[in-house]
Amino acid sequence: MNIIRSQVDYTKCLSALSLLSMLLFNSSAMAKNDLLLTGQISSSTKQIVNAPQGSRWQLQIQWMEQEGKIVEQGNSVVVFDGAAEQAELTSNEENLDRLVLELEQLKVQQEQKVIDARGRLTVAKMRVEKATIEASVPSSQVAALEKGQFELELQRTMLEQVKAEEALQRALYEQSAELTKKEVNILQVKEQISYLEGILANLNVIAQVTGPVSYAIHPWFGTKLSAGMNVRASWKVLDVQSTSNFQIETWIHEIDAVGLDENTAVEITLDAYPNKKYRGIISNLSKQSERKALWSKSAYFPAIVTFETAPEVNLLPGMSVRILVDKAGGKNV
């Protein structure tokens, strides 16, 4: 454990020793017309933690695991502030309970209206039947005045039946419309609850691999991120890298990238072990350049360098590295 701690200290020391050795190394490299690159040790098995999408345009980092500490897979590494989302979730859950209760009450009310409308229609049909029987009595058996009254009553009851049928249709339509409206409101609240639960679940980031934690650099200020800072969605916050499958990440200036290909041989020097040299190759050279505002206005191509043989020393992600490329010699350094 003492060895690991000492190596972590080396990774944090990119100051005097690293700068001096790089200048000395660079002078000999320039004499041979070689290309000198700087990079850092990383693992091909790593988890990059980006700020998740929240309900606001920025999130506050509430807690971060200590940088350099080796975390176990399944442990929390960063927690973002979710107080606003939690309060909104609680409010929506209470609103959902209220809407569900209102829906049940509405079902009873609308069902009663439909039952009443059906009852009035049934009565209207019975009156039509009665009036029909009375109006069907032969004119020889009743007075003309009474016969006329029966026929008028039949027409009146038939009109009432039509109105009762229309009233029933309106009651059924109103029942369907009101229940659908309330169910849509409930569905909207449920979707909002699901959305907020998803956000809250992403605010507590769990380590997917076992390894040391490395903080990311603030894209505006150039300083390392820390708890209490505000970040925007998709910003890199930290990474957790495995303590195996080591490689070297480097960036090549657009001018220096001309003529470089994958599988180009390189010579590697670890700043933590300046007297040891290792051989490697450029295993991956991106075809897409990226801007590095904190470095210069130029474009840089990300590249991956792998060791031909794994070093016998203990490596940790974040260790600084110098890479010597013989551009003229191609695959021979």
Outline the fold blueprint.
Blueprint: H1 2-11, H2 16-31, E1 35-43, E2 46-50, E3 58-64, E4 70-71, E5 76-80, H3 83-135, H4 144-203, E6 204-206, E7 211-215, E8 230-232, E9 236-241, E10 246-253, E11 265-270, E12 273-285, E13 290-291, E14 299-307, E15 320-325
Antiparallel strand pairs: 1-10, 1-15, 2-9, 3-5, 3-8, 4-7, 5-6, 7-9, 10-14, 11-12, 11-15, 12-14, 13-14
Please tell me about this protein's structure.
The structure is a single chain. By secondary structure, the chain is α+β, with helices and mostly antiparallel strands. It has two domains: 2-81 and 206-325, Beta Barrel (Elongation Factor Tu (Ef-tu), domain 3); 84-203. It has helices spanning 2-11, 16-31, 83-135, 144-203; strands at residues 35-43, 46-50, 58-64, 70-71, 76-80, 204-206, 211-215, 230-232, 236-241, 246-253, 265-270, 273-285, 290-291, 299-307, 320-325. The strands form three sheets. A six-stranded antiparallel β-barrel has the order 1-10-14-12-11-15. β11 and β12 form a beta hairpin. It is rod-shaped, with a radius of gyration of 39 Å. It starts with a helix and ends in an 8-residue tail after the last strand.
